[in-house]
Every structure is written in structure tokens, then in C-alpha cells.
TrEMBL record, chains A, B, C:
InterPro entries linked to this entry: ClpP/crotonase-like_dom_sf, ECH/Chromodomain_protein, Enoyl-CoA_hydra/iso
Name used for this protein in its record: Peroxisomal enoyl-CoA-hydratase
Cited PANTHER family: ENOYL-COA HYDRATASE_ISOMERASE FAMILY PROTEIN (AFU_ORTHOLOGUE AFUA_1G01890), PTHR43684
Signal peptide residues on this chain, from the entry's feature table: none
Organism placement in taxonomy: Eukaryota, Fungi, Dikarya, Basidiomycota, Agaricomycotina
One Pfam match: ECH_1
Protein family per UniProt: Belongs to the enoyl-CoA hydratase/isomerase family.
Length: 302, 302, 302
């Protein structure tokens, strides 16, 4: 792909910068508490599609302005839930609806780069589910209030959170959080394991995330990262098949440039300089090995 | 269904009261340490079947009398394990046996309401597995001794605990507990995440559980709860299919009464008053979406 | 099988002793930091095959000499990754490679006895994955440095660790560890739940593991252990099928000698003396109930 200019993408709900292999996306609708509205959805889908395909991007960090009253205060309920359902989609039948939180979750989840979220403010509903759970690594402000209000508002957890949260934290914690409609802080025992790091002040969250992001952008292999993510999320359900699968990964990566450079750097006691890129198509004959599910509704109309 | 009178159900091993949407089941065979015997199994199956179908029940709390010497001391081994196997069932062949702990686990697990267990005493074997793991939320007394003695008694974990415990806590903790035949207290690192709350005294356990139960009975949607539990336990094994599934849930719930009331209450900054009920059959065209497995043995005899 | 003499097996990278039902395997290439080389792989495969089949072995403990500079410092990178790929296997085509870490993981994972690893030194790469994750129970020295360096060396996690780590600790911790290429100590929150016990000094690790091992060798049922491990790892993906499965386990074990002895010992308030052995074939008509996957590459050459 051509190298996109992130300042020229027409984003209206966030801004994106590229810094030393790190794509930094900052939510900018602080006044509206970064509610999860159509323009934000559109920006996130567009941005994560670019991040996935742009070889220059090795790590993504999503954050909000640290003085925003909220990292993301969830869906905009000023129109009730009706705002969720578009008349156009409804015309296609009752199976056509796709939850917008989930559409965003898919885009983040499918990004083959390392994704980090820096939660430097309060978060509610989809601000916890769609904007946190699909990321690889989560940083949070210790003072953030995190709300899972679904059952207290008459709906169920969305954005594929009923898939992600049990896998991230186990079913016991996930059920406690979902069924009590809990509001908790990041250091709650119910969230143990969810955050890579919890920082005392809002201002420290993004710099800490960025420091890790820059380390990883400089010192990790883009192809090894993509394989690792896929092995963890798209693996098989018995150990023998996973052994055959990761053997194939070791064979393909082990004969490619980054592995040679990794071994050389280790022997020479220096940091590596990785140059393999996803667009080189080293992985293409192998990935995806999994059944790809099309999430789009098939329109009945010809 | 008609509204059952819980005082007239002929329970002999426990008593059941209904209080503000909360069904409270209290084990009453304190003198016998609430051993897991036939009458208790019968009572539990009958009670959880009613709780599942009685619209008035929004939350269930199971507990024991706090002065009982044990919450549940497990199977009654006075007859050895032989008491487990009925001659009638044995006549049907060696595949006909159904573990009674598991039969109870199924009844609790399948209850579509929020289920809470208040473990205010020691628990052994099925008192930990069948009477705790299938619940959504667990409270415990810090001083409770919890024993997983299976491999030390020549049998294996039952009551579907080999399914539930790894999902609740991860395989590492589950294997440590099962294979060491451990006796631990609720604050053991091996149990981290299992209990929603751990209370210092036996007397505090049930009131704490009841307070949460009453909050949830008053402020959560019965239909949203049923969908949430099903999404978590009956979801799909890849994220895209779960996204399609929870989108359907959002579509169905989002157009129903409770979601409208939830949004109204939020805007009006008041507590919601949910009125949708499972018997309204809003969810019936959709649930169960999963393959229902018949656990009963098919008798060969015509 | 005949009873093997562990002193006469020709091990070159470790020594094995049998002590009161506990097979103790000690890595002996301290000078080479117990790197994961061909001779070690060969020894481990041979030893765990014997441990699985030798009725005298009830528990296995793997450890290193406590004064070794490392428990296992991972793959030997002196030849780069090229050393991983044998020309013979490469001739069979690019699907023939089997990761040697994974080959060892399979042998440990398939051992039907209780397996314990006593990590009394630093561990890197396969020294963390293949030599720790497939065990049932892990002990560690608090000062051990544990490194998951894969993405920093241009390869992906191997030895089926992308299967095991998410199941052991959840996907959140697994992704943080894998994608940051972390080096952590056993008490890192990222590893919470991985270690059964963490000891302050290197010298305490093996004795603590051995004490538990001897307790378990004396007081657990060999057949109950084998069923427990299989129920946890080879169970079904819905609770009803698991209930039918563990009911069968209870039926088979409950009518065998060890269960009778377990109940008698409980009633007589004494320790049990279990005598059922895997070679008695009580479990053979039932196990394996799961689909067995052949991990060997099928040679095209006739």
C-alpha cells in the first residue's frame, strides 16, 4: 500500500500521528466525553484498517486527552437505544443489525500489529468493552471508574465482550462484572490481570504506554508479532494440533530474515534491527489458516 | 406458570422463602453437616426448576444456617461409594449412571436467573464443586475450609467441576487444586477470582449476599440477565460469530421494554423499574441458539 | 512393562532416581546452563515415556542442580536458528518440521502421572515454555528471571505455549508476556496463578517440591489422577457432555479398589493405601475417549 498521511485522513473524532513506528490515536471529543458516536466509529474503522496494512506501523496506541472528563463515556443515550438501529438496516430484516461496538472490536482485534490502549480517564459500557478488551495490552489510570452497566440498562454486554472478557479474566470474574453491572476501579480484584500496568495519575498513563510502544516498535519483529497474535487467538482446541501449527510457524519464521537478525543480535549482544514486513508476504501462503467468518449481512435484495 | 408457594413444596433438606424478587434457599440439615444426600438432591432439583420458571424470582441465594458445623460436608461416605450407585440404574447398563452432584450442577447452571451462593461454613467435595461452581457469584466466610479431596479418596472430580473450575480460574489453579487434593481457605492464591467477596465472620456472609441480591433483583433486567448468562456460557469459539450473536441480542433486547426503561431511567437519573419477564417469550424465537444436549440415559428397554 | 533401572538408561543430560514413588529428574549440564540441545531432548522423551508407563512412578519432579547458573537457558543460538532444522527432515518437505520444544511438551503433557517442575534457577524461552508449562504443578525460586523473548528474536512462541499459557493464565496475561517479550520474576502479577509455590531461596525449591511429591505419591490414587488430568485437558466444550463424561469416570473409579480403600480410610480416619495401577487396564475400555492426533509427519517416500 502507499504510505498514508495520517494528517490527511479526515478524522473528526480523533487525531493520529506516526512516531518511530508507533501510530498514536488520540480521542479529541473531550467536551462530549468521547461518547461512542457514528463519527468515532467511522474514524476507528478507517484508522485500524490503515494501521493493519501500513508496514511503517509496528505498534498502535489509543488514548484520550488526559484532561478529558472521560476516556469514553459509552453510547450516547440521548435518543434512547433507538439511535442504535438504522432504518436502512432494519429494512433488510431483523438479522441484519450489526452492533457498532462489535464492528469496532473486530477492526481492532484483526489488526496484526501490537495494539495498546492507554485508559487515562473514566470509561462506561462500550468504552470498557469495545475500546479496551480487543487490545493486546492495557494501561490504566488507578482513579478511572470503569462501568459494565448493561444488565442495569436492560441490555446485554456487546462488542464481543462476552467472548473476550471470559478469555481475558476467566468466567468467574466475567460473570461477577457483567451480572452485577459493576462499576470498579482498575485495581479491583475482579479485574486482576486485565491491565498490564496501572498508573497513579492520569498524566502518567499515555507516556508509560508510549515508552513501551516505542521499545516494542524498535525491538520486535512485525512478522513474529502477527504470528504470535494469531497463534494465541486462532489456535486449535487440542495441544497436538497446536504443536503442529506452531512448528509450521517456527519453520517459516525461523528461515526468514528477522530470525537470523534476532540470533545475530543476541550473539553480538546488541539490539536487533528487524526489517521483515507483513507486505513481504512471507506469511501469506500460511495465514489465515483459520476459517474466516464473514460478519456482513447478506442483503436479500439482488 | 402458576406462582408456587415455596412453603408448600415439601422440602425436607432446606427451606425456601421469596423476598422482594430474591429466592432464599437455606440448607437446614445442620446436625448432619448438610451432607449431600438424596433428599437434598431432590430439593435442589425441584427448587432450581421453580426458580428458573417463576417470573417473580430474579435472583437466587443459596446458603446454610450460619451456626451449622459445615456449609456442606460433601457426600455421605458411611456406606462407602456404593451408596452412589442405585441397583435400578445399574440394571440399565454401565453407561446409565449420572453423578448426582452433576445432576444438581446442571439444574443450577441452567437456571436463567442470577444465582448467588453464600458459603458461610466449611465445604468438602461436592459441597465445593456442585454447590458452588455452577453459581454466577460466590460469597464466602474467610475461615471456611474448602476441600477438593477427590484424588486422595480414589475418585475424580465430579459435578462437572472439571469443566467449570478451569474456566472459572484457569487450568493452572484448577490442576493444582484437583491434583493435590487441597484443603484451602477462600483467600488462598489458588482460588483468586473465585469469590466475589470474602467476609471475616460466618454471620456476615448471608447478609452481604442478600444485600447484593436485593440490589440486583430491583435494578437488573430479567431478560438481559438471561441473555448475558447465555452469551458467556453458550457463546461461539470465534470472535466473529460471537459478534453476530451478540448483535442479535442487542437487536432483540434493544427494541424491548426493559431497554427503553433503562435508557429513560438513565436520562432521568433515577433507578429503573424493569417489567419484562422471561415468560413473555420475547427471547423464545432466539434461545436456545445452542445445541441442547440431553443428559438422560436412553433406556434400552421398550 | 518390566521395571526399568533408571541408572542404566544412558541419560547424558540429566540423572533420574526413583524414591518412594517419585521419579526425580535432575538436569546435570550446569556448566552449559542446561541449554535445550539434542541430548537433553532425547533424554526427556525417553524419561517421560518411562514415567508414563512405569507403575512404580506416581509423581515426577523435574529440577536442575541448585547451583547451576540457570535452570534452563533455552535454545543454543550459537549456530543461529539453523540448528533447529535438520537437513533430513527438510528433505521431506516444508511441512515435516516438528519443533523440538513441542515434541518435549507433548511427552510431558501426555504423561498420566502427576508432574511437578521445581524451577530453581533462571529460565529463558523453551526453558519457560517447554520445560514448565506442560507440567501439572510448578514451584519456583523467587529470584528466578523468566524470559519470553520470542518476538524480540524474530520468532513466535513455541512448544505449544500459545495453547498452554492462555489456558493456564488467561489470554490477557499471555498476550502481555508474549508480545512484550517480557523478562519477569515468578511473583510478577503477569504470572499470578502459574506457580503453586514460590520459595525465597534456590535451595528450598526442590525440597519443597519433593515434600509435596512424596505426600502425593503416598496418598493419591494413580487411576484417579489419570482420570482427573484427562477430564481437565480432554473434556468437552459444553457442560452437559462433561457431566455425562465425568459420570462415567465416577462409575468406573467408584467401583474399583482405590475408591473403596479411599472410603474405608476416611471412615477409619487413617491415610489410604492405594494399589490400583494404570497397567491393570481398568481405564482402558474408556480412555482415550478423545480424538488422538498423530503429530508425526507422514513421509511421502514409500
Amino acid at each position: 500500500m502507499a504510505t498514508p498521511d495520517y494528517a490527511q485522513q479526515g478524522f473528526t473524532a480523533m487525531r493520529v500521528e506516526l512516531d518511530a513506528g508507533v501510530a498514536i490515536a488520540t480521542l479529541t471529543r473531550s467536551k462530549e466525553r468521547n461518547t461512542f458516536t457514528g463519527p468515532l466509529v467511522k474514524d476507528l474503522l478507517h484508522a485500524f484498517d490503515l494501521f493493519d496494512r501500513d508496514d511503517r506501523v509496528r505498534v498502535v496506541v489509543l488514548t484520550a486527552e488526559p484532561n478529558a472528563p472521560a476516556f469514553c463515556s459509552g453510547a450516547d443515550l440521548s435518543q434512547g437505544w433507538g439511535g442504535l438501529f438504522s432504518p436502512e438496516v432494519d429494512k433488510e430484516g431483523e438479522h441484519a443489525h450489526r452492533d457498532s461496538g462489535g464492528v469496532v472490536s473486530m477492526a481492532i482485534f484483526r489488526c496484526r500489529k501490537i495494539t495498546i490502549v492507554a485508559v487515562n480517564g473514566h470509561a462506561v459500557g462500550v468504552g470498557v468493552t469495545g475500546l479496551q478488551l480487543p487490545f493486546d495490552i492495557r494501561f490504566a489510570w488507578a482513579g478511572a471508574k470503569l462501568a459494565f452497566p448493561f444488565v442495569r440498562r436492560g441490555i446485554a454486554p456487546e462488542a464481543a465482550s462476552s467472548y473476550l472478557l471470559p478469555k481475558l479474566l476467566g468466567h468467574s470474574r466475567a460473570l461477577s462484572l457483567f451480572l452485577t453491572g459493576a462499576t470498579v476501579s482498575p485495581d479491583s480484584p475482579l479485574l486482576a490481570g486485565l491491565y498490564h500496568s496501572i498508573l497513579p495519575t492520569r498524566e502518567e498513563v499515555f507516556p508509560a504506554a508510549l515508552a513501551l510502544a516505542k521499545d516494542l516498535a524498535a525491538n520486535t519483529s512485525q512478522t513474529a508479532v502477527a504470528v504470535t497474535k494469531a497463534l494465541v487467538w486462532r489456535g486449535y482446541d487440542n495441544i497436538e494440533e497446536q504443536h503442529i501449527l506452531d512448528s509450521r510457524g517456527i519453520r517459516i519464521l525461523g528461515k526468514a530474515g528477522d530470525a537470523a537478525e534476532g540470533a545475530r543480535a543476541f550473539k553480538e549482544r546488541r539490539l536487533p534491527k528487524f526489517s521483515d514486513q507483513l507486505s513481504d508476504d512471507v506469511l501469506t501462503p500460511w495465514m489465515p489458516w483459520w476459517r474466516e467468518v464473514n460478519v456482513h449481512h447478506r442483503k436479500a435484495k439482488l
